[in-house]
Amino acid sequence: MLQRCEVTPTRPLAQAEGRGENKVHVWYLIILDVYDRVAPHSPGYSRQRHTRSRALLVPGPLQPAIAGRDGDRQQVILQAGVSPIRQPPATEKRVLGTVEWLTASRFSLLRDFALCHWKSHVPFVLKALGECCPLLASLKLSHCSGVQAESLSLLAKRCPRLESLDLQHSQVDSSAVLSFLGVAGSRLKRLWLTYSSRMNAILTTLAAGSCPGLRLLEVNRDIKQSSQRFQLPVEQLQAASPELQVLRLLNVIWSPKPSPRAAPATLGFPQLEELCLATTVLSFVTDGVLRQLLWASARLRMLDLRGCFRVTPKGLQELPCPDLEQLHLGLYCSPSALPLPTTGSPLLTWKWQHSLQELDLAGQSFSERDLEQALAAFARGPAPLRALNLTGTKVTLSTVSALILSCPGLSYLNLSSCRHLPRGTKRAYRGPAAIRQCLQGLLTHSDEPEPAQDAGR
């Protein structure tokens, strides 16, 4: 029975086969992933679900392609669509008829729905979902236009289990989001948004307690979008959403909003497991901001601070997060004139060497000796480190060799642009075999005799 559906546009067949740009053909790309339910005591049983995939490219309505029903079909992922080129009225009527037939005949148990790159008729699709999909739990509108407040709030009323909303990269007015939160905010658990000039109204509503059970909040920004700074009411959001587990503010310029003097003390984010503040633009995240966000987050497992050049190793060491598994501190787009620390990396590795699985230090200015002391922390015992990015650092040959010998589980190592390493070794290594090849190359270079010094020296 169909439980998840993703609808995306495909290019016309005439363009795909190179037969001209003027002819418009309406074709549907259907990808069916069928998960078979196998009895626990039957031959060939395993804990993993067996998968059969089938891809169809058929003209006209979708009915013939998915009319059949399989008794063992547990989940079907369907992708279908039409050309984004403007269609004649008869073709648009045919498409809408197909959508109406699907929702009425095949989507009664639908739980996850994604609509991508639809520039019109979005309210029609949302209305059809509201009438025929009472079990809908997740809605994603990606790169869509014409999303109206009335259709979005009506869908929330007719789908009482809807708890996940993704509106990233779609043209949605803030009033539509606010109307949705007014209806479904009390049960909403996951929310994805793209930054706009009217984001403050949405953040104010969230901080006022409209989504007390929110567990994931992500706000991103398109790279081509103009940068505009906004204030995040951190303490109010902590009080309003104490169950938040994932907070992502991606490529946005923000700073904490000052709290009123009479504001009560907050409990922080005690359930937070992932904090991502990665950015390619100016960052105002400091040690104090990080402490304000994470002072009660003992369960934090993933911390992404790429581009946050104001954060120091000392500030990270003081965080009350004892079992961090992923730490990303890479600097990829920061100006070279920034004053970056040359010492302090051992404070990070010796604090989390027992739990750290992924570490990104790309572009950092730590000295050779500092990196040697930092990476020596993984030689204390069986290190869980699986991925390490040292792009553009001053790491030396002996330090990398000792690290590989100390971390048998290492499966990704990036040594690109490491100026102190010999030629032929400055690249990314993926997989255990490539890591062993890297070690062999480093040991070969270490055995080579040093060039003779000039006699006059």
TrEMBL record:
Gene3D superfamilies: Ribonuclease Inhibitor. GO terms for biological process: SCF-dependent proteasomal ubiquitin-dependent protein catabolic process. The lineage of its organism: Eukaryota, Metazoa, Chordata, Craniata, Vertebrata. This is F-box/LRR-repeat protein 6. One of its GO terms (cellular component) is SCF ubiquitin ligase complex.
